[in-house]
Amino acid sequence: MSIRDDILVGLRASEDLTVGDTTPEQLLGAYRAKVLREVATEIGDACPDHADGDTCYLGCQCAAARDLRRMADEAEKGDAS
Ligand SMILES: [Zn+2]
């Protein structure tokens, strides 16, 4: 059983299958999207070419940040597993 499955079991047990109108799968997808976007923002803010921050990675990682945002969008739509 994956960690995702463990979390879904816990959500179902604690919230009687739904939390308001939101399913456990939607909650988990939304949380996954939030984490992915946080990481994408961190990467984008640290870009030496496209951000004004003091910190920087080895080079521009904006493509990776865009990929993380795409994954976040997919997680919200329920495409993630
Ligand atoms: Zn960049």
Characterization of this structure:
By secondary structure, this protein is mainly alpha-helical. The protein has helices at 3-15, 24-45, 62-77. The model has no long low-confidence stretch (mean pLDDT 84). It binds zinc ion.
Q: What average pLDDT do the residues reach?
A: 84
Which bin fits the share of residues in helices? 55-70%
Ions and ligands: zinc ion
Gap between N and C termini: 12 Å
Question: How many helices in DSSP terms?
Answer: 3
By helix and strand content, what is the structural category? mainly alpha
**Total domain modules:** 1
Shape call:
elongated
The biggest beta sheet reads: none
Q: How big a fraction of the residues is strand?
A: under 5%
State the gist of this model.
With 81 residues, the chain is mainly α. Helices cover 63% and strands 0% of the residues.
Which key features would you list for this structure?
81 residues, mainly alpha, 63% helix, elongated, binds zinc ion
Task: Describe the secondary structure blueprint for this structure.
Elements: H1 3-15, H2 24-45, H3 62-77
